Amino acid sequence: MPGMVALRIATPQGALHAGRWSPPRAQPRSPIVLLHDSLGCVALWRDFPARLARATGRQVIAYDRLGYGRSAPHPGPQPISFIEDEARGAFAAVTRQLGLERFVLLGHSVGGAMAVAAAGHHPEACEGLVTVAAQAFTEARTLAGIREAERAFAAPGQMARLARHHSDKAEWVLRSWVETWHSTAFRNWCLDEALRRVRCPTLALHGEHDEYGSLAQPRRIAALAAGTAEAGILPDCGHVPHRECPEQLIAAIAPFLATPTAR
C-alpha cells in the first residue's frame, strides 16, 4: 500500500501536521482531503488513507487540526464557531499551500460537518462530498454518547491512550469535545444553512448502529444538500466505519467517486 509523506502547513496560529498518500498509478483526478473527528488525528485514520488511495486511484491528504495530533497547540478555548472557522481558516491554508485547486472532501463525525462547511465555502473547487457518521444537528443520542465516553476516560490509563496521539494536548482535546457539545450555546446547532450552500454531489454514509447519532442524521444531510445527494447505511457498523468496516466503507465511496459528476 502507498506510504505517507509527512507535510507541515504554516498558519498564523501555528503549524499543522499533514500526510499525503499517492497510489502507484495515480489518475489525473482531484485528491481526497480527509477531516477527522473530535478526538481524531492523522494517525487515527490508520491504514484507511492508503487503502482509499489504492481503491480510487487518487491522492489522499489528511491533516491534524490545530490542537490535535502533531499540530501546534490551540491558542485558547475552542470557540462555538469552530466548525465554520475550520472551513475558512486551517482548511483554506491547507488547500492554498498544497496548491489544491480542485478536491473531494471526506469528513468523519464532526469532520463531516466541517467538510459540509468547507464544500459550501469553496463551491467551485469542491467536486464531491462524502460524510461518514456526521452530525447534522444536536441530538440526544450524541450528547449521551459523549457523556458515556467522558466517563470511560476517567478510568485508569484511558487518558494516557489519548495522550499517545495528542501528547500534552490530550486534556484540551477531551474537554473541547465534551464542553462544546454540552454548552447552552451549542444546543440548537445544526448544519441546515451550510448544507444549502453545498453544490457538489454528496454521499452521506452512516453506520447502522452508530452510538453518536441516529439515521436521521444522514437523511437530513441528503435532504438539505443543494446538489444531488444520497444517504447510505452501513450494516452492522457503528460510529467509526474506517476502523470497524473499512471494506464496506470503501466499497460505498469508490463507485460514488467514479461517477462523472464527482470528478
Automatic annotation (TrEMBL):
Residues annotated as signal peptide: none
| InterPro entries for the chain | AB_hydrolase_1, AB_hydrolase_fold
Using the record's annotation, list all stretches that form the AB hydrolase-1 domain.
Answer: 31-138
Q: Which GO terms describe its molecular function?
A: hydrolase activity
On the tree of life, the source organism's domain of life is Bacteria
For this protein, the parts annotated as crossing the membrane are none
Q: Which UniProt keywords apply?
A: Hydrolase
Hydrolase found in the keyword field = yes
Query: What is the protein's given name?
Result: Alpha/beta hydrolase
